[in-house]
Amino acid sequence: MPNNFRIQNVLFVYLTQVSGATYVTDDIGPRIQRRPLIGLQYLCAVLEQAGVRTDILDERISTFEIDDMINIVSKYDLVGFYCSDPQEEKVKAYCCRIKARRDIPVIIGGPTTLKNSSFLNFGADFVVHGEGERTILQVVQYYNGEISKKDIKGVSYAENNETIYAEAQPLIEDLDALPFPDRSKHDINLFFDYYLFTFRKPYVTMLASRGCPYTCTFCSSYKIWGCRYRARSVDNVLKEIDDIVARYKVKYVAFQDDVFGLNESWIEEFCKKLMQRPYRIRWMAILHPFSAKKNTEKILKLMKQAGCDTLSLGIQSAHPGILKNVNRHPGEPGQVKRLIAVANKLGFVTYVMYIFGLPGDTRETIKMTREHSLSCGATVVTYNILYQLKGSDLRQSYRGEDVCGLTQEELIQASVAASRKFYLRPMALLKIAKIIIKNPSWLAHVFLNIGSILARAGLMNPRKC
Question: Which residues pair with 231 in a beta bridge?
């Protein structure tokens, strides 16, 4: 780099996924679900605060070929790619082509970079491991000549034909100190999630916390964020909601926390203060089966009064032995039924997610899980197929090898059969119909794209092995 080189313009890139690794179909539903890139929005916010101009190139919104992108990056001083497991090969291909044509720094970050520095072999200058806000600022400071390379934490890089792993970046303890995500990079109305039956536009995703105290072996989240739960203050979260309602007229917020509101007193304070606002929004949250275990009805009633209309739960299996195999509590199936019974009484839409193919799964354990899904009372269920996420304990233990006695084809068939049995019940269809009939805008959009909804539910276009 020239001596007077400075990072003034940064481009973050999100490439589309080729297929859904855990779905029963290869139809990932791009016309049904396009969530905002909240991680990249946070990175934009911290750089803009530091005086660096940023943009996000989202292939879901602006289609482009690799040669188009090579021309686009010529306007920038640094390019950063978001990467999850299904995007890894595509990101590596783009990285190679860019570095062959342009002398520009390239960094890679995202879920798949946890303990995965292989991107350095494809031209990446830095691979970010873990939380990115402090690290991206240090990378920019390095290129601006303000710090040395060894001062950057939370990255790996190549030096003298060796891979150097820097010291881990400390977690951000005070999440309130972060600027709000920069949602100005795209028209907010370009984002949607019609897999949520109560969805309204304009819509945003939010994080009220980071981290998860649970250590499920199939998940890498607790390793990315640290096995700790860090919550923003209630007032800080509400300040962000005030901002997005005033600026974008937001009607729906989808909280993407691994577990929303682990502390019951936090939820209570949040809901009471949200109800005091002069506006009304609707929102959804992801709960753990043991969320609000002591005061289930009190907490869920408050959430409903504050505008929450949808709850999402992951139980994965109904078999106690399988749950123990993945560091889950064998009491979760019963607790899910109790929580959903209260939620149904209060009028929530409930989503429950299962995984077929966990360690030890057999036809009998999957049948037990399927029977639980039919009796738990959920509005919507999803039967995912196990995918060994890079960085997860399960991936490290099995290294891509089979973890149960069933083939991939058998797991797909079991998932499709379970989905059809669940959704073709008259009572299940009637329950869903009563919800969506109240949301005409949902009906109007989905009518033209119903195939993606049916595919995700396992009712058409099952994935081929």
Answer: 209
Q: How far from 19 is each of 33, 142, 415, CA to CA, in Å? A: 14, 36, 17
**Residue 100: burial class (beta carbons within 10 Å; 0-12, 13-18, 19+):** exposed
Domain 187-456 has CATH 3.80.30.20: yes
Mean pLDDT (the chain) is: 93
Tell me which residue has tokens 């009712």.
Answer: 459
Portion of the chain with pLDDT greater than 70, in percent: 95
pLDDT band at residue 3 under the 50/70/90 scheme: low
For the entire predicted model, the pTM comes to: 0.94
Buried b (16+ CB within 10 A) or exposed e, 420-456: eebbeeeebeebbeebeeebeebeebbeeeebbbbbb
Q: For residue 322, give the nearest of 353, 280, 366 by alpha carbon.
A: 366
Q: Which residues contact 99 (CB under 8 A, 6 or more apart)?
A: 106, 122, 123
Is the separation of the CB atoms in 253 and 237 below 8 Å? no
Alpha-carbon dihedral of residues 239, 243, 245, 251, nearest 10 degrees?
Answer: -70
Distance in angstroms between the alpha carbons of the first and the last residue of the chain: 47
For 335, half-sphere exposure in the C-beta direction (CA atoms, 13 angstrom radius) is: 20
| Structural domain boundaries in the chain | 9-165, 187-456
Q: Which of 58, 75, 19 is nearest to 456 (CA)?
A: 19
Select from 122, 126, 77, 82 the least CA-distant residue to 102. Answer: 77
Q: Give the integer Cα–Cα distance in Å for 64 and 43.
A: 23
Reference 186, options 442, 52, 14; nearest CA is: 14
> 288-321: per-residue pLDDT in tens?
999 999 999 999 999 999 999 999 999 999 999 9
**How would you label 42-75 residue by residue, b for 16+ Cβ within 10 Å and e otherwise?**
bbbbbbbeeebebbbbbbbeeeeeeeebbebbee
- Superfamily the domain 9-165 falls into: Response regulator (3.40.50.2300)
* Cβ-defined contacts of 241-245 (< 8 Å, 24+): 241/206, 241/274, 241/277, 241/281, 242/277, 243/180, 244/183, 244/204, 245/279, 245/281
As a whole number, mean pLDDT of residues 94-100 equals 95
Q: How far is CA 259 from the centre of its chain?
A: 12
**Integer Cα distance of 112 and 110 in angstroms:** 6
